[in-house]
Specification:
20% of the residues lie in helices and 30% in strands. By secondary structure, it is α/β, with parallel strands linked by helices. The protein has a domain at 41-95. The strands form 4 sheets. A 7-stranded mixed sheet has the order 13-12-11-10-14-15-18, with helices on both faces. Helix 7 packs parallel to helix 8 (335-347). Bound molecules: flavin-adenine dinucleotide and FE2/S2 (inorganic) cluster (FES).
């Protein structure tokens, strides 16, 4: 494969990417990467009243987030206590009730006496259940079954204030079809749009694959934790991405490359079944040529015109033989790939706390309330999706 840098346009929704043996073109730049009666006296402040209204229904220890809402005002009128609404105020909504520990007693399972800390992270602004209306700006056909959507939040204020950390996810919804979880794979420095890469799996992802530029979607984001990149400063980072697992790797890798001076050597091993299954093919030439990135590509079996590695990711990893000293391995991909890649990393003497991955446990609320995503005592939507291998070893097996 030629390793010359080229430029060109990304393909849009109307055209499928032509099968190719090697990455070729660079993408087109998206649009820039009831008021109280006169003499009545308010009895209680609006916000506490609203917070009290919701708190008994949830597990103790849940986190409260503040947001603007039409909270009730309570005031006295003679013998009567009058409740009125429609006064915008800051209220608090419960997020992230503590999940029961595996094997915990019934009272612990109800959350009694349990309080836990959730690391600081960007959160949805306003009502976390309410999708922000957004417009699809661009659709890129990455592979036969992966499309990338670049979406712009309709409210310019939402767009301006939106912030996320690498590894955080969003719930992307198509009206009439539902919503599903995807990593926000644009780096935080990209302020013009949010990017999601979507592999077609079922109903919602099929509906997402049918959208075109100009269509409306909904976004609830950012959700979940993020890669602890501040703890990695001064270390070498070895990224391993398999298939659609390259989406979260792309975000954190681009973020670290923007702050390269803080890190040691940055390496990437990206594998897919065939060259046609490689997402971001238009960026690979650039990644291969960057002096600040040691990039290796691999495919499962020989393919005409392919000039990179051939072999399964764990085997290629063993062949590359990265030094575990002062190094963090970050891997994302299908469960089977994670399982065998972790075994390879262990053979290479990477410590469990230096192996970081993401879990794709199906989510609903995304904010720690519904219990849909728990693994043992952890909720993937608030404790994850990013975990170290050491943390995962303490949970019931998922992989
Ligand atoms: C934290 C997180 C991050 C994710 N990031 C991405 C991403 O960046 N890009 C991407 O393409 N996908 C991602 N996913 C997976 C994506 O959310 C699912 O593919 C999507 O929800 C499927 O919805 P659907 O209605 O199309 O499929 P469904 O009709 O609900 O399911 C179709 C098939 O896929 C299986 N399935 C659905 N969801 C999951 C899941 N979470 N794990 C395993 N199997 C599942 C079902 O069992 C079924 O066999 C992520 C999931 C999580 C939890
Ligand atoms: S608790 Fe609802 S998705 Fe995690």
């Amino acid at each position: 494969m030629a390793t010359k840098k080229t430029s060109g346009k990304a393909k849009t929704a109307t055209k499928a990417a032509a099968p190719k043996a090697a990455p070729k073109t660079a993408p087109k730049k998206a649009p820039r990467e009831a008021a109280p009666k006169k003499d009545a006296k308010p009895k209680a402040a609006a916000a506490p009243a609203a917070a009290q209204a919701v708190s008994p229904a949830v597990r103790p220890g849940a986190e409260l987030v503040k947001h603007e809402e039409h909270a009730p005002v309570i005031r006295e009128e003679g013998e009567l206590t009058v409740r009125e609404s429609a006064v915008p105020a800051t209220v608090e909504t419960i997020v992230a009730a503590p999940a029961p520990k595996a094997g915990a007693s019934k009272s612990a399972a109800r959350g009694e006496g349990m309080l836990r800390e959730i690391s600081p992270r960007p959160k949805p602004q306003g009502n976390p259940y309410k999708p922000m209306p957004a417009t699809v700006a661009e659709v890129i056909q990455e592979t036969g079954n992966i499309k990338t959507l670049r979406v712009i939040l309709d409210n310019p204020e939402d767009m301006k204030s939106f912030t996320h950390e690498p590894g955080q996810v969003g719930q992307l919804s198509v009206f009439g079809a539902g919503e599903a979880t995807f990593v926000i794979n644009s780096p935080p420095s990209m302020k013009d749009y949010l990017q999601f890469s979507v592999m077609q799996a079922g109903e919602v992802t099929a509906a997402i694959h049918r959208v075109s530029p100009g269509d409306k979607v909904g976004v609830r984001a950012p959700l979940g934790n993020f890669f602890p990149y501040n703890d990695w400063k001064g270390k070498n980072i070895f990224f391993v991405g398999g298939g659609i697992g390259m989406a979260p790797i792309r975000t954190i890798m681009l973020h670290l490359l923007e702050h390269k001076a803080d890190y040691g050597k940055i390496s990437l091993l990206y594998g897919a079944r065939t060259p046609r299954d490689m997402a971001y093919s238009y960026e690979l030439e650039d990644w291969l040529r960057r002096p600040d990135l040691d990039c290796t590509l691999c495919i499962d079996a020989p393919f005409e015109g392919w000039e990179h590695k051939v072999g399964l990711i764990p085997n290629v990893l063993l062949e590359l033989n990265p030094d575990p000293t002062n190094c963090v391995a970050v891997l994302c991909g299908p469960p089977i790939m994670i399982k065998f890649t972790v075994q390879a990393l262990q053979k290479l003497n990477f410590a469990p706390e230096n192996i970081v991955t993401t879990l794709e446990k199906r989510m609903k609320c995304g904010i720690g309330i519904c219990g849909r995503c728990n693994i043992g005592g952890r909720y993937v939507c608030v404790d994850g999706p990013v975990f170290t291998w050491k943390e995962l070893q303490e949970l019931p097996p998922e992989l």
